[in-house]
Amino acid sequence: MFYYKTQQKVFEIGGIKVGGNAFENPPVLIGTIFYHGHKIVVDGKQGVFDKAKAEELIKVVEDLSQKTRMPAMIDVVAETPNAMVKYLEFVSNATKMPILIDSPDLNIMKTGFQYAKDAGFIDRVIYNSLTAKSKDDEYKVLQDYGVKAAIALLYTDRIIDVDSRIKNLEVILSKAFAYGIEKLLVDTFVIDIPSLSAAMRTMIEIKSRFGLPVGSGAHNAVSTQRKAFKERFGSDGYKACELAASISTLVVAADFLLYGPIEAAKEIFPAAYTVYNSYKYLARRKEYLMQL
User: Fold this and answer.
1) Angle, to 10 degrees, between the axis of helix 265-284 and the axis of helix 226-251?
2) Each residue of 114-154: pLDDT tens digit?
3) Which residues are 290's β-sheet partners?
4) What span, in angstroms and rounded, lies between the C-alpha atoms of 6 and 184?
5) What number of H helices and E strands is found in the chain?
6) What pLDDT score was predicted for residue 239?
């Protein structure tokens, strides 16, 4: 387990703390709803979905969060502005969890922020996500709507390179605070198996140098190669590989985990509970494997 000499930042978003020294706070677990291909979505363009099933999925997350004391957030994806409004209206009323507004489209993003501001929950919104290629217009939208929290995705073509990820973070940092982004959560970018270890190494480097909360969508290490993993290991083996990828980041004390489809909560929360409760006793005793 790691202890960082650099002061670690802890951000509170919608009543949930994220960040800090290793296992100071439990990792925040973030599931995605209304994603591409989600079976509960009837019409992605119009935002038509099975409300009963959506409510059930959110309730499962809330129950698991309460049972394990692992904090949760929900990532809302939408194909159109109209769909984003419908999804946010539903989710914001169904739960008090912080909400990630997830869209690469500036118009969809604007619509989502406008609805959140009008409905009075902009303070529990996180934008997913800024990259090193984000233009000033994108930052300006966040500033205009008073969005204070964002994910910084360290996307890079050099997928196993740590330095390129750090450089991308420096680019984002050079703009984020100038535009009023006070709470930056760093996604160290996982796209396949080789990138997973690079992303974890980057987490350690970022916490050591910048003290920012770190995490990733570690399930991508496996899910982007779903067909190959299922052919080799079968459906159950595929799920085991995906879970292992996600949990490996928590072993190196990631502050948050984007675990993918919200349905995976049933496996993720108990697994995260096991890792966190094992390590937190060492943290309380101030016994560390390494000080950085």
Assistant:
1) 20
2) 999 999 999 999 999 999 999 999 999 999 999 999 999 99
3) 2
4) 17
5) 9, 14
6) 95
Longest dimension (CA), the chain: 53
Strand pairing category for 214-216 and 183-187: parallel
> What is the phi/psi pair of residue 75, to 5°?
-100, 120
Q: Which two tokens stand for residue 141?
A: 């939208």
Q: Which two tokens stand for residue 250?
A: 């928590």
**What's the number of CA atoms in the CB half-sphere (13 Å) around residue 278?**
11
Q: Check residue 104 and give its pLDDT.
A: 85
CB 30 within 8 Å of CB 257: yes
pTM of the full structure? 0.96
Domains of the chain: 2-291 (3.20.20.20)
Closest CA relative to residue 186, chosen from 22, 19, 27: 19
91-112: pLDDT as tens digits: 999 999 999 999 889 999 999 9
- Tell me the C-alpha distance between 195 and 239, whole Å: 19
C-alpha distances out from residue 290 to 5, 65, 204, 219, 262, Å: 11, 30, 11, 26, 34
Contact residues for 127 (Cβ-Cβ < 8 A; gap 6+)? 100, 101, 109, 142, 147, 149, 150, 151
Measured CA to CA, the distance from residue 109 to residue 182 in angstroms comes to 19
The DSSP code sequence of 68-103 is: HT--EEEEEE-SSHHHHHHHHHHHHHH--S-EEEE-
Could you give the CA distance from residue 132 to residue 116 in angstroms, rounded to a whole number?
A: 25
- Residue pair 254/20 in contact (Cβ under 8 Å)? The answer is no
> Does the pLDDT of residue 287 top 90, yes or no?
no
Q: CB under 8 Å to 40, separation ≥6 — which residues?
A: 33, 34, 49, 50, 53, 54, 57
- 265's enclosing H/E stretch is helix 265-284
